[in-house]
Design goal:
The protein has two domains: about 160 residues, Transcription factor LuxR-like, autoinducer-binding domain (Beta-Lactamase), CATH 3.30.450.80; about 55 residues, Arc Repressor Mutant, subunit A, CATH 1.10.10.10. It contains eleven helices and five strands. A five-stranded antiparallel β-sheet has the order 2-1-5-4-3, with helices on both faces. Helix 8 crosses helix 11 and helix 10 crosses helix 11. The longest helix is centred in the last third of the chain and has 21 residues. The radius of gyration is 23 Å and the shape is elongated. The N and C termini lie far apart (about 75 Å).
Amino acid sequence: MTIRPEPFPAIPRSQSALQFVDDWSDGGALPAALTAFEQAIAAFGLRAPCAAYSIGFGTGRTCKFLFNRLPEPLRSLFVGEIDVHGDPVVAASISRHRPFTFLELGADASAGFDLETVGALALQCGVIDGVVVPVHGPFGYLGMVAMVSAEPVALSPGDEATLAAAARCLFDIARRAANLETVSRTARLTPRERESMSLVAMGQTDDQIARTLGVAASTVRHHIDNARAKLDASSRAEAVALLAVSGEI
């Protein structure tokens, strides 16, 4: 009787993503990291990654690419600065935490993603679906890493988690390579200044804050002006936004 050896068990595709994290978690040169990442995501049937980031608030919020390897003609749709709220993919990456696919986004009527228009261009370069991994960083910076696929994408929870870990690892390398500033304007406020600004954020007037704190309205204005000056903010609204983004209030 011939005894046949047992076949080696197949290595889960998530292992390729975990290996990328192991190899690149300490950082490295972006071109080499991109090549390694593309090799890792090939196990998932994914390719052509791109990454964008958004930082700031109000009219000062921008969204730009860190790198873009999307195939043409898709790449030509996403160049320069991106409308943070006008682009459905960017908007979805801001409002979601878990990875999502293009087909999932297209099936969501509230997302405003024109799957037919984008799909017509995508088919020209053999793209049927893709995955977007949202990146939520400290001090209000937001980002995403996207990849495309020639087939509809189906990920197990483990696949999703490991792919997201690899994508966020790559994003961090790209962020550092671009010298992306992720330090918020913050300041050491006194307890009274912080209390006053917290109440401003809740919509209270100077008189209401004065009654809450048991001080004169002029004292409240003094605390608020001090906090605004420390933050180099042009208005109370900007000061509140800066403190909220940095988690101070």
